[in-house]
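To whoever picks this up:

The parser on our side crashed when reading a file containing two proteins. I've narrowed it down to the boundary between the first structure block and the second sequence. Both blocks are reproduced below exactly, byte for byte. First block:
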Amino acid sequence: MKCDIPSNAISIYGFGSYFKSIRIHRDIDVLLLHRDTSIASCTFVLKCKQALMIAVPQIHVTMLSQSEEASLGFISKANAREVGSICAENFDSDIKRTASKLSY
């Protein structure tokens, strides 16, 4: 789902054993990719992290801005795949939808 205000949106990428269909995994690793290092973007991604950690207790969260990810090449190196997004205007429903995708 596209957000009306890109600064109030994040993309969620999954990586690690849970996303490799390995039967035995102890956690669910995700990357929260946010726009930049502005206060608004960082505040929003922290709100998303907190809500996801409550909704999916076994989740482990990495957060990167788009420029940090571009510099590190994290998505490619980790073979991460996009699993969702969270927009400020749809926050609660996006958290619930994402949590249902990530639950055991």
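<<boundary where parser fails>>
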Amino acid sequence: MAIQQFAAVTERSMIYGHIAMMLGKYDMAQDFFLSSSRPQLALDMRCDIQDWITALRLAKQIDPKQEPIICKRLASLIESQGTPIYPLISKATTTRLSDSTKRPS
């Protein structure tokens, strides 16, 4: 976002978030956006920089409708890196199943 575009923004958290984002301080920007009146900006930023894992975590909290889209993009990234996606899914599913079947001591 160009400086002119957020010149009308009066909320400090959003201004600080945009400045941190322009400086490449994405974790700091995310914190500012999440504390603002528009936490969706944190999710949008993570998608813009293609940080799909963090975007997926944020989507679960902020906008669950975005989860399938982000999952597809994450899967595409993983496959483009030459890592088969199915073993990762299988491992995640197995881990979840084994965690859910453990009995408390």
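After patching the parser it read the second block fine. Residues 91-103 have pLDDT under 50 and may be disordered. Residues 8 and 64 are 29 Å apart (CA to CA).
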